[in-house]
Design a protein that fits this description.
alpha+beta; five-stranded antiparallel beta sheet; two-stranded antiparallel ribbon; 9 strands; 20% strand; elongated
Length: 294
């Protein structure tokens, strides 16, 4: 019986030791699991922290870029607006008239000069209206034919036109017509005064040309003839082609260039307004004595 008890006690002791070893191993595994879990949590925290910092930094950079972009866009927009206002001011205040006509002949753009040239009071009197609305019968004019050709054939044209307004008044304009995507662009200069001056010059020239007195002009440097009227050609006995190959002293046999220049010096120096002098002119093979006012 003692031996049996001793054996049982020995078995009980071995089982206790085995149970203690198993518990120790299980505790080690649990501790290892906790260590691994803590390590994983630490790694996850580090990764999340870094990602958060990177995301925050990226968001900050994006915000800065957006802010800079907005400033640049605003600056560019203000610059464009400023230039647009400058161009608009220049266009509105140009001496020449500007108008853009659409394909259906409506006024899309006019400036102040064009408003004045067209005898209107403001842009609103033209914008949105057709040329036919403002000037009935314009379709039958030479001007409209030129505009229509430029509109359809897309070819530029420079054209001088006399326009008759509905009230009967007239004006001359020099027009530069250009095709544009919207229709046609017309740059107009008021040529009424110039035409009037040209007509006066033509009338004066005709008067000089038909005068019974000899009238001619010549260069101070070479004394060659620059203008000779009909009476002078007739009295001197030269053709128009011949006279322009001669100088003033060629028809004054008793004058040289030096003596004639000396005679002209009071006029050149503004000491006299005119000189009356008696010259001997050579008429073909004859000599004639005449009084000349210089």
């Amino acid at each position: 019986i003692n031996k049996i008890d001793e054996t049982e006690n020995q078995l009980l002791t071995e089982r206790k030791l085995e149970r203690a070893n198993n518990f120790k191993e299980l505790s080690g595994l649990i501790n290892l699991f906790y260590c691994v879990l803590v390590l994983l949590l630490l790694i996850s925290f580090i990764v999340i922290y870094r990602n958060t910092r990177a995301r925050n930094r990226a968001e900050s950079e994006i915000k800065d870029l957006n802010a800079n972009l907005e400033k640049r866009v605003e600056k560019k927009a203000n610059l464009l607006l400023e230039k647009e206002n400058q161009y608009r001011f220049l266009i509105e205040n140009m001496r020449e008239g500007i108008q853009v006509i659409s394909f259906d002949w409506r006024y899309l753009l006019v400036n102040n000069s064009l408003v004045r040239q067209s005898r209107n009071n403001s842009e609103e009197d033209l914008l949105g209206y057709t040329m036919m609305d403002k000037y009935p019968g314009i379709e039958q004019t030479e001007l409209f034919s030129v505009l229509e050709k430029c509109m359809h054939e897309r070819e530029p044209k420079v054209f001088e036109n006399e326009f008759t307004f509905p009230n009967g008044s007239k004006s001359w304009s020099e027009l530069s017509i250009q095709p544009v995507p919207e229709g046609i662009f017309i740059l107009s200069s008021d040529a009424t005064e110039r035409r009037k001056i040209d007509e006066e010059k033509i009338g004066l020239l005709e008067t000089l040309q038909k005068s019974v007195n000899e009238i001619y002009t010549y260069s101070l440097d070479t004394l060659s003839f620059e203008y000779v009227n009909d009476a002078a050609l007739k009295n001197l006995g030269y053709s128009e082609e011949e006279i322009y190959h001669l100088s003033a002293v060629d028809v004054k046999p008793y004058q040289t260039k030096s003596s004639f220049h000396e005679l002209l010096m009071p006029l050149i120096n503004d000491k006299k307004e005119k000189i009356v002098h008696e010259f001997v002119h050579q008429r073909s093979v004859h000599l004639i004595c005449i009084d000349i006012v210089l």
